[in-house]
Amino acid sequence: MLSEPYQRYAPAVEQRPVHPAGVELRAERPAVAWVPSGADPNVMVPVLREYVQPMPMPAPRDLTPQPLFDPLAQRMLAGGVGVGAAGAGVGFGLHELAAGVALMGTSGLAMLAALLLAAGSVRGRSVVNVRHETHVTQKWFGRTDITHHG
Question: CB within 8 A of 131, min separation 6: which ones?
Answer without folding.
Answer: 150
